[in-house]
Amino acid sequence: MGVFPRLRRGKPWKLKIEYWILNILFLALSACSPPPRDALLTGQTMGTSYSIRLAASPLGRGDLRRLQADIDAALAEVNRQMSTYLSDSEISRFNRAEADEPVAISPDFQHVVRRALEIAAATGGAFDPTVGALVNLWGFGPDGRPCAAPAAEPIAAARAITGWRHLLLTPDGQLAKDIPDLRLDLGAIAKGFGVDRVAELLRARGREHFLVEIGGETLGVGRNGQGESWRVGVLKPDESADLQGIARLTGGRAIATSGDYRNFYRDETGELRAHIVDPRTAAPVGHAVASVSVLAGDCLTADALATALFVLGPDEGLPLLAERFPDVEALFLVRTGDGFREIASPGFAAALRYEPAPAL
Ligand code: ADP
Ligand code: MG
């Protein structure tokens, strides 16, 4: 028996030569066949783009096409549940419902609401998924930009219809509110969840090494095509496309960034107004922090905490992380006038490198 039973019948020296010829042939053939390449899938979802890199993927074109169709279907399902841009989504139905009219929602939506409420409680309401009326009032919703800063009266009116404590998820999966005009807005957490959902799908299909990104929120699982940790650039929070540094995603971690450098306008006094509202002041966050990047074990948590930490700033945010989220790391980039100062938790400082960007 054996791999080459025919060889056994020859003379010993002949056997040796045939063995080496076959070995050399095998080595030559394996050197000729190219190593599997990374596969890149790109598309649109949640009003932004997504990209998925599968390291050293053995999948052929047809398999990749089918995989992407399944990913698109999973993301469409997230939108069908949680997009406020779809008038017949579960979230839109909830937002239209009366106060005494609980709405049954799908298990994924329940999971996101449960985590959103936990993070709201843990951050003292800095993360608040009901802050939509204020976001709209300050010019980042369907009503568009205001001509001037809103007056005290409309601010008070918007404030009266916000507050995560007015939102209730019943044990049997129904979403309820105790004020009719409360509006749920998962814009600061849904992209992160979408990333986690795609990762779950890829894992279920046997993929072990991949990078998933939706609108900049990213999760890296396993290793890249070179067998190293996935690396993700942290942008300087200005108009340049320069990198502040490169973060290594080890152990299946996610990175998300929130800031005031992408979605903003300057009001009539020249003041910068950006799309994250501090629920405590009912106004857009306005401090020297330009961006916060967060490393966490899942992308939903990274996404929500990046928003919360942007509200809180480093003085409040870093002690809160150490106390309530010991596995989460953060990097604050603070404007100095001629650049940015880094304020990082120890784990983020260790994950950040200053090296040339990898060729993508
Ligand atoms: P990006 O969408 O740029 O990734 P975020 O994840 O920080 O940024 O989400 C910002 C969005 O979250 C806003 O456009 C708004 O819809 C919503 N939002 C604004 N302020 C808050 C807040 N304090 N808590 C929760 N969501 C917020
Ligand atoms: Mg966020």
Architecture blueprint of SSEs:
Layout (H helix, E strand, L loop, with lengths): L11 H21 L6 E7 L2 E7 L6 H22 L7 H7 L6 E2 L2 H16 L9 H9 L11 H9 L6 E3 L4 E4 L12 H15 L5 E5 L2 E5 L8 E6 L7 E7 L4 E6 L4 E3 L5 E3 L2 E2 L4 E2 L4 E8 L2 H26 L4 E7 L4 E5 L1 H6 E2 L7
Antiparallel strand pairs: 1-2, 2-6, 3-5, 4-5, 6-7, 7-10, 8-9, 9-18, 10-15, 11-12, 13-14, 15-16, 16-17
Feature tags:
three-stranded antiparallel sheet, alpha+beta, eight-stranded antiparallel sheet, 18 strands, binds magnesium ion, 360 residues, T-fold, binds adenosine-5'-diphosphate
Commentary on this structure:
With 360 residues, this protein is an alpha+beta fold. The protein has a domain at 99-177: T-fold. It is built from 9 helices and 18 strands. An 8-stranded antiparallel beta sheet has the order 1-2-6-7-10-15-16-17. It has a 3-stranded antiparallel beta sheet with strand order 3-5-4, covered by helices on one side. A hairpin with a 7-residue loop joins β8 and β9. The longest helix has 26 residues, at 299-324. The radius of gyration is 25 Å and the shape is globular. It starts with 11 loop residues before the first helix and ends in a 7-residue tail after the last strand. Residues 188, 256, 258, 303-304, 306-307 line the site of magnesium ion.
